[in-house]
Amino acid sequence: MAMTTEHFFRRPAVLLPGLLAVLLAACDGGAGHSHGEEGRGHDHVAEPGSSAASERPSRVVTRFNDATELFVEYPVLVAGEASRFAAHLTWLDGYQPVDSGRLTVTLNRDGKVVAGFRVGRPTRGGLYTPEVTPREAGTFTMVLTWEEGDRRTVHRLEGVRVYASRAEAPKQLAAGGEGDITFLKEQQWRLPFGTAVATERRLRATVPATGTLQAAPAGDRRVTAPVPGRLQAPEGGFPEAGQQVASGEVLARIVPRLGTGTDLATLRLAVTEAESEYRMARRERRRLEGLLAKDAVPERRVAEARSRARVAQARLEAARQRLAAYQAEKGKGDGPAGVPVLAGAEGRVAELRATPGTQVREGDALMRVVNRRRLWLVARVPEAEASRLKRPTGAWVTPTGHDRALKVDTAAGAHLLSAGQTVDPETRTVPVTFALANPGDLRAGTSAAVRVWTGKGAKSLAVPTAAVQKEAGEAVVYVQTSGEAFARRPVTLGTQEGGYVAVTSGLEPGERVVTQGSYLVRLAASGDTGAGHGHAH
């Protein structure tokens, strides 16, 4: 949204001689020209009281486009007389001065360029000082165009009057805005500063809450010891905290404790005996099955032989499994291999609670594997605000350490899991839980400030919450009335959502408020900025 503010004023006639000398020495020789012909010009604005500006008040205009702010001062235009401009250009993104590129000033009428004037670079960062000498009187559209490479930004000033003589030029000064606060461009550029336009936004009513971003239960797995024994590293090494693991990955092995009087030789003997018993039972079964085919034995004896063979086979498998729990893998020697401990879920190792060599019991926690791709937001709404909750559809979440709120919206993939029906007797809060995709690689367990949505949105005039200051209990914003003029404005606030708050009175749509540096503007009102006074054009 473009904004224009302009008024007439006279600058103070006093300029320290030393400062003037420094400024003249710093002139960069930027050229000014009319109708395409190069000419030399001064890089400072003619001060009131000088021959060039005698009895000519200065015009001040502030304009905004999507990229830049233009704050320009110049003596009113008179045909055939030079007017030195002081055009301050500021990037709105980051609020820094434009410190390179050329500026062209044209006077247009009926869509045609009547006169053009250009400087190839700023006199200093943010300040361009073209000299404009119109040839004829009339009303024009003044266009200020900044260009550098393929970048371009344009400001148009409609209805600019060029007077035929000084006698026709206005001599009366319009009074400035009552109570205006002066905060110069040189101060704004040196300090953290930013502005935003008051516009209508759809805001939803919210209630405040504290919250925690937790890993979803399926993504937070405690890895425990399946058997008692001694913990040892697997073939690929023991995992480290923060290591990414797959669900079937072996994280450790446990060498089970042997029973009293049990050793590897005994286990191997048990396998050998079971193998012999199974071979004999299988041979007897086959012999009896052959006799049954000749009707030489009753069928009962064959059934018993088959049963004995199945039992022998089961004993053999059990013996082999007991031996496998202790015996090294093939080709790895005779050391114990151990029972594998699997991750059980994909994620990162968040905690290690045991180290290789530790004796563990069955069920002891060994480590924790967390998958952060899905999170749960558990918001705790104060009991006094819980009556406003019906079926929340989302929330604004500001994780600790973050400046901007994140949006949790059931219409955009989040899910409402529960809106607590009971009040926690200790915290006197009601829990509200959402499931959501991790919006920015947030850590599980991160605390957050939360505002839970309570209903549908409504359009309201709104400003960023950063624009509002509390002064003696009163909500106040600082409105930029022109490039270097500001006004203190008490406001009445309404619904707050995300980083914005509704303003129900005290502000008009399109007005520009200070969002960063408002406290410095407040200090400027008392004359206590410590940043110096006056321009150095």
SSE diagram, text form:
Blueprint lengths: L4 E5 L7 H9 L6 E3 L2 E3 L18 E7 L3 E8 L1 E2 L4 E2 L1 E6 L4 E2 L4 E8 L2 E8 L7 E2 L2 E2 L5 E11 L2 E13 L17 E2 L2 H6 L3 E4 L1 E17 L4 E5 L4 E4 L11 E2 L4 E7 L7 H30 L5 H26 L14 E4 L4 E6 L6 E2 L4 E6 L3 E9 L11 E6 L6 E4 L5 E5 L9 E9 L8 E19 L4 E3 L2 E9 L2 E6 L1 E6 L2 E6 L6 E5 L1 H8 L12
Parallel strand pairs: 6-15
Antiparallel strand pairs: 1-4, 2-3, 4-5, 5-8, 7-13, 8-9, 8-12, 10-11, 10-14, 14-15, 16-35, 17-38, 18-27, 18-32, 19-26, 20-22, 20-25, 21-24, 22-23, 24-26, 27-31, 28-29, 28-32, 30-31, 32-37, 33-34, 34-35, 34-38, 36-37
Describe this protein's structure.
It is a single chain. The chain is mainly beta and 537 residues long. The chain is built from 5 helices and 38 strands. β34 (474-482) and β35 (485-490) form a beta hairpin. α3 packs antiparallel against α4. The longest helix is centred in the middle third of the chain and has 30 residues, at 264-293. The protein starts with a strand and ends in a 12-residue tail after the last helix. The model is unreliable at 4-52 and 328-336 (pLDDT under 50).
Give a concise summary.
By secondary structure, the protein is mainly β. It contains five helices and 38 strands. It folds into three domains: 5-176, Macroglobulin (MG2) domain (Immunoglobulin-like), CATH 2.60.40; 196-215 and 373-525, Beta Barrel (Elongation Factor Tu (Ef-tu), domain 3), CATH 2.40.30; 221-369, RNA polymerase II/Efflux pump adaptor protein, barrel-sandwich hybrid domain (OB fold (Dihydrolipoamide Acetyltransferase, E2P), Beta Barrel).
